[in-house]
# Entry
Amino acid sequence: MIELHDVHKQLGDREILRGLTLTVPKGKNYVIMGRSGIGKSVTLKHVIGIFQPDRGKVVVDGVDMATVTPVDLRELRKRMGYLFQNGALLNWLTVAENVALPLREHTKMSRSEIGDRVMKVLELVGMDHAAGNYPARISGGMKLRAGMARALITEPEYVLYDEPNAGLDPIMSDQIHNLIVEVRDRLGVTGLVVTHSRACAFTVGDIIGVVDDGKILEEGTVAEMQKSEHELVHQFIGGGAD
Amino acid sequence: MKLLRDVGMGSREMVSGAGYTVNLLLRTILALRYLPRRIRFTLDMAYAAGVRALPVTAIVALFAGMILALQTGIELRKLGQSEMIGTVTAISMCREMGPFMTAIILAAMVGSAMAAEIGTMTVSEEVTALDVMSVDSTNYLVLPRVIALTVMCPVLTVFSNLIGIVGGGMVADNHLGVSQHYFWLTVRESLLATDTLFPKDVYVGLFKAIVFGCTIAIVSCSAGLRADGGALGVGKAVQRAVMISVILVIILGYIITWFFYFLVH
Ligand SMILES: Nc1ncnc2c1ncn2[C@@H]1O[C@H](COP(=O)(O)OP(=O)(O)OP(=O)(O)O)[C@@H](O)[C@H]1O
Ligand SMILES: [Mg+2]
# Structure
């Protein structure tokens, strides 16, 4: 379970989060939508402990991120995956080496075991053909999918996806959405998904929350949200898929 | 008022930067036990640093040695002591000039590249990504670079000492009327004819080189890790890395000479 309670955060001279509260139940996907620059990525970074809230509480898997020891944080993070908005691949490693990195660092698996596992995950995101390429040589959408593979390689219990379908064509988007649903259903992954895409929200979201002004403006299931009276919610969710 | 405030801000930044850098050094020392896992990467780094700096080091060392011989040669000739030129060149190259020049070249060529590399990783969230994967960036990124330069700086220093002395020998032969044979004889005598196994001038120079290499790498990694604000921030980090490296090399060079020749005899 992921819980954020009344989280406040000031960055620079702006208070980005102003009392954000949300709960992601175990094994569910929570989709965060909201205007660009509103603090969605900042919210995800609180969940994984890159940012500490100025006020309020962030609890992941029963661990309070404010009081967690560095050792426990490392252990917790090994059970979490994070898809960065730009992929954040290391540029001197190939795609396959990037994806292999968490396993190389934290497990005693043999080279060939790791290689097999990497190829399997790369296949899931449709990147097996580009395994040997360097990040500088692949497109933004490909970086994102490689980042996705890296986030999933350790079979984490929690995954934070920052815009998992940004820059992907509709076919590839669908494949990624299905993958997110699949890891939830098959592995029981608890997911927090940031997206601008209705198709993504509708496919993967068990709960959808629209953020504005540093808080959750409204949250609910797809059906509930579609009935919302809020203008902003309507703009994000209303109408059909995309 | 604005000037005062800017200076104040600048010095506060410097103090916090120094704190960060010292902390990074301590963490790197603690991370030494991971070195066996990083050995491949460390060797790659050392090799790349050596190859990158070698040609420039050779040119600079050659001319530095020639200038040194020429300059001191003028004075020595006045005193009728031209035959001392081998001794003077060898000792000043090994003790002072060799390590110093090599360090400046490494700061400009390798340290700057390290700061740029790590700075780019920092602003594109790659370092954060390592953090999130529970991969410690100190032992993954910083340790190999620090070890690589700490090893490479003395190696290049030995090389530049040698080239510098060769340059001095050429000048001695051509302009000062000291034969190559006699020049090298005095060089050998000044560097080897002591009762210790390692002559002091050589080991003080190499000790300096080790300290310089480590300093440049730590300072550059630290500047890179503290970069923020996109490509502009990376540029600033590189500038800061080179500036601080050069300043520290000069200051530490002075302190080490003072320590070995005035404090302990
Ligand atoms: N490290 C930081 N330091 C200072 N300000 C930051 C930092 N990170 C983010 N911000 C600011 O916080 C605000 C929210 O950023 P965030 O990246 O969370 O937006 P977002 O909702 O993810 O937008 P997008 O949909 O475009 O990705 C932005 O105004 C940004 O300038
Ligand atoms: Mg974002």
